[in-house]
Predict the 3D structure of the following.
Amino acid sequence: MPLRLSSVVATTVGLIAAVPIVSPAQRPVHEIQIEAKKFEFTPAVIEVTAGEQVRLVLHSTDTTHGFQIKDLKLDLEIPKSGKSVTAEFTAPPPGRYAVACSNVCGRGHRQMKAALVSVAAQRSNTNH
């Protein structure tokens, strides 16, 4: 029995439709909770993978703080109300990026620092 062109097209379209296409908006987001308090950020080292989508969720347990990563042009105010603020971005190239409190929060303000560490994505090894 000869195969009709319409059957081939329908089968091909069905195969193409079955392959998921992941748009940037559908990529998984690496969400990290960060606590600010006099005079520290927890965690003090924030590790991300270069190129991944990152969401930082920040809240303060005491007073108003800032969260600044100058190299990424990121500067947020974290209110003292305990209400969370978020920042979403694509993780930068591998490296260590300084984080500082950008809102004077008391005598230890200048020591309120952390680091965003971006690591290279692991390549999957398909050779066994």
